[in-house]
Amino acid sequence: MAHEVGKLVMIGFDGTESTPELRSFIKEEGIGGIILFRRNIVSQAQTKRLVERLKDEVDGDLLIAIDQEGGRVQRLPDSFGIFPSMKEVAAMAVERGDPGAAYEAGERIAHALRPIGVGWDFAPVLDVSTNPFNPIIGDRAFSEDPDFVGELAVQFMKGLMEGEIVACGKHFPGHGDTDIDSHMELPTLPHTRKRFDVCEFKPFRTAIKAGIPSIMTGHLMAPHLDPDLPASISPKITTDILRGEMGFKGVVVTDDLIMAGVSEQMPVSEAAVASIGAGADMIIVSRDPAKQRECLDALKKASDNGTLPPDRLSKSRTRLEKMNSL
């Protein structure tokens, strides 16, 4: 019988087919989500078949997600279409004098994802592009103006969601001013709380007010918010600020725990427990079945020994179920 913590885990895998081993792993562990990458996608027909086979294994109760932003972060092959980066979307909005350009960008992505069975897109990017030397965000962000970022992100979100795709704002508390790629090492944002309030937090507050259903936390240090822990495993940032102060009631998902920004700080299994303990509802482990199993085992142990109390896990499962019904 699958352990209930499996619902809080999203995994990635290699290949373009649903293997018996993968299906067995999903079913036995009660895995809650699958994230697709370019390595999994060849064509619309192949991806639709892949997703249907995976969902059949768990009676359809499986979240299928993707990082499809447009521009540099495009998991769909070019045969699905060419999608502009968020910076290019913002330029179109300025040229037209119409933020509806962002709505149309989200709508186009939704129309590409819905037919293949993907229901959750890790977009829009809510980071504010204040650092021209940022190696990982850059043109993935709409603008250096936090108000404009919020305005366009809400339009993009509406385009996705009216196309029946769940939107996800990222990377809380804000990755736009870092000078290090969190895939490679842990960045630090030395900003004061006042700076976060007038810049980085603004688009998140706007998106939350507009009803965004999910937010992704980033792997970065913000010492003036929490001097001890990265954002993705920080109760002060995830629970106290995002949920408490900002009133976010939706799903919190971590960025990939395989990324060096967190995996070099602690074993991935420890990060999995710390993330859920901090207030996340779902963790992502994008590859390596051995590490995925280690995370599941650590979460089971934490659940069984009370480190992660039953009511804490129940709240996450309820939020995920509510989002899955959108």
Brief overview, please?
With 326 residues, this protein is an alpha/beta fold. The chain has 12 helices and 10 strands.
* CATH superfamily placement: Glycoside hydrolase, family 3, N-terminal domain
Total domain units: 1
Spell out the helices and strands N to C: EHEHEEEHHEHEHHEHEHHEHH
CATH class: Alpha Beta
Number of contiguous helices: 12
- The average pLDDT is 95
Main β-sheet description: 8 strands, parallel, barrel
CATH topology: TIM Barrel
Biggest sheet: strands side by side, in what order? 1-2-3-6-7-8-9-10
Unreliable stretches: none
What's the quaternary structure here? single chain
The Cα radius of gyration reads 18 Å
* Alpha carbon gap, first and last residue: 28 Å
Record keyword descriptors for this entry:
alpha/beta, 12 helices, TIM Barrel, 326 residues, single chain
Topology:
Layout lengths: L8 E3 L8 H10 L3 E4 L7 H13 L6 E4 L1 E3 L2 E2 L11 H11 L3 H14 L6 E2 L24 H17 L3 E7 L20 H6 L2 H9 L4 E4 L17 H11 L5 E6 L3 H4 L4 H11 L3 E4 L3 H16 L5 H15 L2
Parallel strand pairs: 1-2, 1-10, 2-3, 3-6, 6-7, 7-8, 8-9, 9-10
Antiparallel strand pairs: 4-5
Helix pairs in contact: 3-4, 4-5, 5-7, 10-11
Describe the overall structure.
Helices cover 42% and strands 12% of the residues. The chain is an alpha/beta fold and 326 residues long. The protein has a single domain (4-324), classed as Alpha-Beta Barrel (TIM Barrel). The protein has an 8-stranded parallel beta barrel, surrounded by 5 helices. A two-stranded antiparallel ribbon has the order 4-5. Helix 5 links the parallel strand 6 and strand 7 (166-172). Helix 3 crosses helix 4 and helix 10 crosses helix 11 (289-304). It is globular, with a radius of gyration of 18 Å. The two termini are 28 Å apart.
